[in-house]
Design brief:
- With 224 residues, the chain is α+β, with helices and mostly antiparallel strands.
- The chain has four helices and ten strands.
- The strands form two sheets. Strands 1-2-9-4-7 form a five-stranded antiparallel β-sheet, with helices on one face. A five-stranded antiparallel β-sheet has the order 6-5-8-3-10.
- Helix 3 crosses helix 4.
- The longest helix is centred in the first third of the chain and has 18 residues.
- The chain is globular, with a radius of gyration of 19 Å.
- The two termini are 36 Å apart.
- The relative contact order is 0.17.
- The mean pLDDT is 87.
Length: 224
């Protein structure tokens, strides 16, 4: 696929998303503790803005989404584009990412606490899904196999995943309805928290033997 066609599709996604949801209506971090000491404070709900007369074209430009991301041990990787590397995105309420998958590569079940995600497959075959709480208290899996050109939406705050089920590499683009969507990996958050969650809490919650919980913690310990 010619990259200019990929990029054109990518720009169309950005325009569509910005029309639907153009600003962040809520906080851009997990919490913001108030302080009366301005010398011991940081501003995190967005970034400080430069004077508009000092803006340059480079403030609205990012180069590199044609380059595959470095893959992790699970065979997946992401190149994120947000105000940290594209300053002009600040306060616009959008960000994007290129997602790369090795054959059978996986992005673990996770949530974006501050954004919905529009995921488009550019190459390969990817199995995706999210879980939704039902009125009866149960959880329903909404999943589908996506091929090149297919689009799937993950609503804000719901657990979802992406798995390359092909024997070749796969590529996708994600657009987010926040400049800082956040990412909480469920296994890492539960079994890799520091300080760790009490073994009895996890053993009872998952109905597993404590030794199994300890093994899982060792697998997801920070640095593993």
């Amino acid at each position: 696929m010619a990259f200019h066609k990929v990029f054109a599709h990518f720009i169309l996604l950005l325009i569509t998303l910005s029309l639907v949801y153009a600003t962040d209506p809520t906080q851009l971090q997990d919490f913001c503790v108030a302080t009366n000491d301005p010398h011991n404070a940081i501003f995190v709900n967005g970034l400080f803005c430069k004077n508009s007369k000092d803006a340059t074209p480079e403030d609205f430009f990012f180069k590199g989404l044609d380059i595959p991301a470095k893959l992790n041990a699970l065979g997946s990787g992401a190149t994120q584009v947000n105000p940290m590397n594209l300053a002009g995105l600040n306060t616009l309420g959008i960000s994007v990412a290129r997602l790369d998958f090795a054959p059978y590569g996986l992005i673990l079940p996770h949530i974006h606490p501050r954004a919905s995600e529009v995921f488009t497959v550019l190459d390969g075959t990817i199995y995706v899904g999210f879980t939704s709480i039902q009125s009866n208290g149960g959880n329903k899996l909404l999943a589908k196999v996506l091929n090149k050109g297919d689009v799937f939406v993950f609503p804000q705050g719901l657990i979802h995943f992406q798995l390359n089920i092909g024997n070749t590499s796969a590529v996708g683009f994600s657009s987010f309805s926040s400049q800082n969507p956040g990412l909480v990996s469920i296994p890492d958050a539960v079994f890799g928290a520091e300080p760790p969650i009490n073994d009895d809490v996890l053993s009872k919650g998952f109905q597993l033997d404590t030794n199994v919980i300890k093994m899982l913690k060792s697998n997801f310990a920070t640095g593993n």
